[in-house]
Amino acid sequence: MLKSKALRKALGRKYVSENMIRFVGLFMLLSTLLHAQFQGERDKAARALKILDGWHKQDSREGRRTLHFVLWTPKGRPPPVRYEARLTRMMIHIQDFYKKEMERLGFGPRSINLPMEAGKLRVHLIDGRKPESEYGMSSGNEIKNECLPVLAEKGIKGKKETLVIFCNLASWDDDKLIFTHRSPYYAGGNFQGGTAWQLDSPELDTLNLAKKTPMMRDGQYGWISLGKHNSIFIGGIAHELGHALGLPHCRERPDEALRGTALMGSGNRTYGDELRGEGKGSFLTLAHALRLASHPQFSESLKGMNLPVSATIEGLKIMAREKAIHVSGKLVANPPVYAVVAYFDPEGGGDYNATTATTVPDIDGNFSFSCDALPPGKAGELRLIPLHVNGSTGGWMSQTKFKYPYSVGKDGTPDLAMFQIRAAMTPFIEALSKRNREAAVAEARQLPEGKMRQIAEKILERGRKAVKSPAQAGQNQTAADLTQFKASASKVGWGRPAYNFLPEPPFLLEAGGEIFSTGIYGHAPANHRYNLGRRWKTLRGKAGMATGKQGTVRFDIKGDGKTLWKSKVIKAGGLVDYSIDVSGVKTLELVVDPSNDGNSSDWGLWLEPKLNR
User: Angle 18-57/4-11 helices, nearest 10 degrees?
Assistant: First the structure.
């Protein structure tokens, strides 16, 4: 940064206020940071493209994949007015957005391919089988299934292509300027195909993006300008299309926030804000540009689309230094990997609050990167996504086998204790995943004495059923794990009751940044009932949401039908303590209830529940 005298001289003034000096100095610093970031991103893009394009040029198989568009309308309802012209403008605008962002990041003008006829977007108009009243926001698959046979007649294999289905389930009052909708509005997919469900309505048009007036009433977002309304829903098309192309959520890192809002974070609500002077708008992160670079829509190559893929990481090291996490290793992959994207996903908020880091492996597959965008006081999960040259990431959306837990202290210092436990137990977990009990027993014996060995032994006991109830425990037993006793009744909302392990890999009882040796699996709605026989005094333990699950539940402990303790609503990352008096209680009930949003992913856990006399 220039010193004051030099800055005054550069500005050609005899006097510049200290505030002006600070402002201009800050501006110059930000410009320097942006330039450095810009150059670093383009350098990575160049190295990634050298691997990616080099592979595709050998025995190339060029092919043009295009998106396929449907305007679906319920039986007896006419399509929205001027839909062809409006949808054409909107999709060209979104195509240009992706093109400019890919070019800015160093990938050239790559973008989605639009099917055009005589200057208009080719849109297949399909009538639904039922009237409007019989469809709603959850009707996405039903609507798609109505579209597939019609598309098949036109030679389009909808299950193997990328579809954008605009649903005519919105209501627009042009006089009162009131908008509501009940349309599906979500998406999913990968490099081979996907579907984005959108909505269409007469007021949606890129010509309206810059309009600060008139003001209108949106059924979900309230009193907003027509321009902001268009930002939300046209931005929503760009965002959901990203999901259909295989992009998971992520938010911008603090250093990226200088550019605006990440499209796959909350960028669906800020698209075009800059046209009204209301913000910086939306942008595409380098992480997602790297993923799109190999998508057939962007690469215009069909080479290896159906190849099986494999990837392993040798010599993986995850270390904490100061307030950053540093990762290194060597990828062995087929087909080759041209980049690795890392998602640092704090618990809570789904994956919307995940930030990213990127790296390009060298010729031998070695890679390294670091990240300090770690929210303090939260546990999280690191996901490593290898980007194969054929477009595959080895998983659907954000799923991957390369998942590693971490936590961050309130002072921002990373804690990798959970990762170290998970890493040490990986051979044991892999043996269990393959249902090789003999190998799992052998791996358990290799674990060091202490917590890890205890956890493994508890998991191996999962086939042994308890035979005694707490009421049948000997009088000399003054303390006991509840999980050692037989439940008189038990039920869970998904799968089967499980004690001291989770019913799917990695099997570990993990919640709130901790791994526990004992516990009760209770996917809501769940009820576990025990006969205490009025012979115990206290029950202590913790209750929380299983790591990696995004549900919301409420825990309830009852004694002879009366609530003794009830938690607040527990979300992802949540963990609470309880200590209650069970004196005189004959029947103990541990209840896990879903919250008002249903029971999807409601993996509630009763952790280290202990009875005392």
Answer: 80
Q: Could you tell me if residue 108 is left (phi over 0), alpha (psi between -120 and 50 degrees) or otherwise beta?
A: left
Q: Structural domain boundaries of the chain? A: 1-55, 59-299, 310-415, 465-612
Identity at 187, one-letter amino acid code: A
Cα separations in angstroms, 430 against 224, 367, 426, 449: 53, 24, 6, 20
Per-residue pLDDT of 84-95, as tens digits, reads: 999 999 999 999
Domain covering 310-415 assigned CATH 3.90.660.10 in the classification: no
C-alpha distance from residue 187 to each of 210, 238, 261, 397 (Å)? 27, 11, 20, 10
| CATH 1.20.120 is right for the domain spanning 59-299 | no
What value does the mean pLDDT take over residues 48-71? 90
Q: How many CB atoms lie within 10 A of CB 38?
A: 14
DSSP state for residue 500 in the 8-state scheme = S
Q: Write the CA distances from 606 to 271, 528, 540, 561, integer angstroms.
A: 43, 10, 10, 19
What is the DSSP code (8-state) at residue 192?
S
User: Quick one: which of 83, 154, 88, 159 has its CA closest to 118?
Assistant: 88
Q: b/e for 283-303, b at 16 or more Cβ within 10 A?
A: bbbbbbbbbbbbbbbbbebbb
- The residues, ordered by sequence, that sit 6+ positions from 198 with a Cβ below 8 Å of its Cβ are 164, 165, 166, 167, 183, 185, 236, 237, 240
For residue 411 the two structure tokens come to: 């002072």
Is-contact 604 548, C-beta < 8 A? no
Residues 298-310 have pLDDT tens digits of: 999 999 988 999 9
pLDDT digits (tens, 9 = 90+) for 127-175: 999 999 999 999 999 999 999 999 999 999 999 999 999 999 999 999 9
- CATH fold label, 465-612: Jelly Rolls (2.60.120)
Give the global pTM. Answer: 0.80
DSSP secondary structure string for all residues of 149-188: HHHHHTT--GGGSEEEEEE--EEEETTTTEEEE-----EE
Apex CA 311: angle with CA 307 and CA 316, to 5°? 170
For residue 182, the one-letter residue type is R
How many beta carbons lie within 10 A of that of residue 496, not counting itself?
A: 10
In contact, 297 and 305? CB cutoff 8 Å? no
Q: What share of the chain is helix, strand, coil (3-state, %, to 5)?
A: 30, 30, 40
Other beta carbons less than 10 A from residue 585's beta carbon: 24
